[in-house]
Amino acid sequence: MMEPRPNPKMTDTTPEAQRVQYDIYRRMSPARKFRLICDAYEMGKQLARAGLRMRHPDATEEELWRLWARQHLGPELFEQVYGRATRE
What's the rounded Cα separation, in Å, for the pair 3 and 17? Predict the structure, then answer.
């Protein structure tokens, strides 16, 4: 099995810790890896919505959803899917 290459983006992780982490990932089932990805995505979505809530405290839930969708999809695709935004 190939040895993992150092990841320059992981500046707070030692090469030894990175090897251990990769070994753990290799032993995980595909279902477990998928669950971790889904959990990370949901956490990112919650953090993004919390940031939007802080910047737009008076927004309704629908407005927050549209703001998140606009960020997530980009302005062009958002407008194709949802029409023009009511709030930027």
Answer: 13
> At CA 37, angle to CA 49 and CA 68, rounded to 5?
20
Q: Where are the domains of the chain?
A: 16-82
Among the residues of the chain, which ranges form H helices?
Answer: 15-27, 30-55, 61-73, 75-82
What tens-digit pLDDT sequence spans the chain (88 residues)? 566 666 667 678 888 998 999 999 999 999 999 999 999 999 999 999 999 999 999 999 999 999 999 999 999 999 999 887 555 5
Cβ-count burial 20-32 (b if 16+ within 10 Å, e if not): eebeeeeeeeeee
Residues 6+ apart with CB under 8 A from 86: 63, 66
